[in-house]
Amino acid sequence: MERSLAVLTSGGDAPGMNAAVRAVVRRALDCGFKVYGIYNGYEGLVSGGEAIRPLGWNDVGGILPRGGTFLGTARSERFRTLEGRRQAVRHLVTLGVDALVVIGGDGSLMGAHVLAEEWPSHVEALEKEGLLGELGKVPPSLDVVGLPGSIDNDLYGTDMSIGVDTALNHIVRAIDDLTSTAASHQRTFVVETMGRHCGYLALMGALGGGASWVLVPEEELDLRWHHKMIRAIEKARAIGRPHQMVVVAEGARHPDGLPIRTEELKKILADRLGIDVRVTVLGHVQRGGAPSAFDRILATRLGVAAVDALVQAGDRPLRHMIGLQKNRIHMTLLMEVVEKSQAVGQQIDQGAYREAQRLRGESFVRTLELFKTLTRIEPAAAMQGNGPVAILTGGADAPGMNTAVSIAARCLMNEGFPVVGVRDAFWGLIRGEFMMLEWNELTSWVNRPSSELGTVRHSLTEEDVQRVAETIEKHNIRGLIAIGGLGTYMNVTTLMHHMPELKALAIPMVLVPATIDNNLPGTEFTIGGDTALNNIVQDLDKIRHTAGATKRTFVVEVMGRQSGYLALMAALASGAEKAYLPEKGITLAELNEDVAVLRASFQCGKRMVLYLRNENASKHYTTDFIARLLEEESRGFYQVRTAILGHLQRGGVPSAFDRILASRMGSAAAQQMSTMLRQDQKEVLALGQKGGDLEVTPLQQVMEEMDVREGRPKRQWFLELSAMAETLAKHAPACSVA
Ligand code: ATP
Questions:
Q1: CA of 84 to the centre of ligand 1 (A)
Q2: Does 28 reside within a domain?
Q3: Which CATH number fits the domain that encloses residue 252?
Q4: Which residue, by CA, sits nearest to atom 28 of ligand 1?
Q5: For residue 28, what are the contacts with CB-CB under 8 A and spacing of at least 6?
Q6: Does the beta carbon of 44 lie inside 6 Å of ligand 1?
Q7: Binning pLDDT at 50, 70 and 90, where does residue 381 land?
Q8: 560 and 446 in one domain?
Q9: What pLDDT digit, counting tens, does each position of 92-102 carry?
Q10: Ligand 1: residue whose CA is nearest its atom 3
Q11: Ligand 1 mutation target, pool 103, 108, 151, 158, most atoms within 8 A of CB
Q12: Which of 76, 213, 452, 686 is the most buried (most CB within 10 A)?
């Protein structure tokens, strides 16, 4: 029997909700469900009629770049009543719906749980009242699946909720903008972010924006908290940075539980420091705009997983939220999600801050610690030993490299280790060209694009290695932190192999993965990848806007070297119909099939089709070749255009995700270096983020994960998303073409 599914968005809107609805609708149609969209959340479900409409494949076309939710959202008092929910059940039963997907916050998920629990009793009552008429078979139960949609990131059971990443990007960019005006006027700004019970946005925004102080609801403030804040600002000003940012979550509170008001903060700072202070409340700007690449991909993965869970559940009742934990799909009972999410607020109310933080998760606690460390640190007077630690950024530049350098260098200086920057990567190391790193300069590097140290692609020769050893000896370099891509990994591997005969090379080294290509071993994400992805997706959105009266195919070439990460993830986030990846190559048979699919796509109503091609997907089937082939076969039915995005992809300020990743990795690199120097260890270590955790692995071991000949890791987690990208972007399957 054909199953019917309904989907709604509820509570506050969040960017990415449209991507989730699209994924749910198309996956469900593919799995044979009849699909209904419920407009205006539970309010629409209670109202019925026009508020519940069938959704087809094309109804969710072109909505990926749109902010908010096209289904509309609402808070419904009627749904909170038994009578209201009975109406809701009546409408669902009448349409034969036995599965409901709800995208929203904890309140919305609670509503879904209550509805599923009460379903049999409502059905019985409606039957008794004769309100179900001659319906035939009534679904005996309702399966409900929740998806986390809330910009606050306050939901238990998922590391990230839909909308959070976009909101964070708004926040860091707002802090960037305010910083430039603050610097011009030597002002201090108090910036308020959303988050009534949750300090996630404030904390991550403060870290990514390079703020000097943060106030979050989950932290217990002692009675003298303003003195501490004033001291930190005073110290930062004394070091030479006259403009400061203080970030406060709207739910931050005094030790007695009363809210901390921004105007109050302004008065404290102005009175105590005699400085010019301005307040900016970011407000609803944080919710708005086109969703980030991350949010679109997260929402798509969760939406597909929701339908898959419904299909796989069989007769088992489903009352779960689908979340992402450690970069893997994870199901948690709705009731557990609601109870544990709400418990944080209760713990804060009761003053149990430690418990509140524990419920927020390890990553929140570690980031809070990292931020506190950054506010405490200052260049230490006592120097540990006399030789410096050298930091370089190698290969091609990647957004976020400066953030990593800034954090690593300041953490080391705080411990009294002298630090120097190497100019132009290994090139500078060969020639002994260094750059003094100034504390204040470093502070302002957090949000700078590209690499201030400079990067050069250069593979070390035997002769170079000898000269690097001489530089290290001459300048008494005690350790090396190398931030870069595959070339940097290969160069450090070369140095490591020469350590036995060239004693000067035997110093501790730490590698930090930074490349837009995401082609490194030992890590699921590399610094720079997220910014590049957002750059690509924004460009693809613009290309889509050019859709006019003429049917058009765009073949867009993206970077990635031998890794299809950027092409595939950009396809997933932009709804591109095809991604040619180096992992799969391109065959003539495939191109032949693509020609047929393309024609069918236009016949089925598409006006614009996007094909993405990784720069190395094939040696001979180039972007130009594919475009000409498609044009030739179009017989005038559609036009073909190409776009090579080139270096636009690696430009611009780093995204929030990249800044946070770079901050964590920069601090971890400093910590590893400091430990090795103190314990006189001379290991070569590589950092990575796997399943959400930072990992440290000997370089030798990490390189075993690498397929050096192919230029990418042997296993790439993202490839499993490739079928998803294609099936969601295809033309309506119901459309039959002659
Ligand atoms: P946000 O995080 O943006 O606040 P939310 O989903 O938590 O999103 P709420 O206003 O708490 O937003 O809930 C949305 C809707 O869910 C409510 O208007 C109400 O219709 C329904 N709802 C919430 N709690 C319950 C409940 N206990 N029983 C039935 N329905 C509920």
A1: 14
A2: yes
A3: 3.40.50.460
A4: 111
A5: 5, 35, 307, 310
A6: no
A7: low
A8: no
A9: 999 999 999 99
A10: 12
A11: 108
A12: 686
Does residue 579 sit in helix, strand or coil?
strand
Active-site option among 13, 98, 143, 152: 152
Range of the domain at 140: 4-162+291-344
Which pLDDT does position 738 carry in this prediction?
A: 45
State how many domains the chain has: 4
Active site residue 152: yes
Which pTM does this prediction carry? 0.96
Helix (H, G, I), strand (E, B) or coil at 124: helix
* Domain shared by 488 and 427, yes or no: yes
Residues 69 and 171 in one domain: no
| pLDDT above 70 as % of the chain | 98
Tokens of 727: 């099936």
For residue 322, give both structure tokens.
């689908």
Distance 548 CA to ligand 1 centre (A): 41
Instruction: For residue 555, report the distance from its CA to the centre of ligand 1, in Å.
Output: 44
Whether 703 contacts 551, CB under 8 Å? no
Q: How far is the CA of 536 from the centre of ligand 1 (A)?
A: 36
635 burial level (CB within 10 Å; 0-12, 13-18, 19+): exposed
Residue range 349-360, pLDDT digits in tens: 888 998 999 888
Q: Are both 308 and 450 inside the same structural domain? A: no
For the stretch 105-137, pLDDT in tens is 999 999 999 999 999 999 999 988 887 776 667
Tokens of 43: 């309010």
Q: On the CB side of 487, how many CA atoms lie within 13 Å of its CA?
A: 19
CA angle 234, 235, 240 (to 5 degrees): 95
**In the chain, what are the helix, strand and coil shares in percent, each to the nearest 5?**
45, 20, 35
**Rounded CA separation 212/49 (Å):** 53
- Burial (0-12, 13-18, 19+ Cβ within 10 Å), 111: buried
pLDDT 10s digits, 56-77 = 999 999 999 999 999 999 999 9
